[in-house]
Amino acid sequence: AQVLQEPSAQTPEGTGININCSHPSIQGDMNVQWYRHLPDQAPHHIVTGVTGDKPVRDPPGRLWVSADRRSSALWLARPRRGD
């Protein structure tokens, strides 16, 4: 599926940030997957969502997925350097 997202975001360490993502071509029973991808490392799965919102454990925050699943947002409560 097509994914549209800013390549990076910045906030002072420990200050919450909302990261938005658009996936306009999502189809069928596809889930929304969020990953953390640090330089020189493999992507690390953070959370999977279908619709609605749910807590995220590591890093602490919350995932929201729209009812039509065409957009989502990951809120990080206390991002650390490198998140």
From TrEMBL:
<protein>
    <submittedName>
        <fullName>TVA4 protein</fullName>
    </submittedName>
</protein>
<dbReference type="InterPro" id="IPR013783">
    <property type="entry name" value="Ig-like_fold"/>
</dbReference>
<dbReference type="InterPro" id="IPR036179">
    <property type="entry name" value="Ig-like_dom_sf"/>
</dbReference>
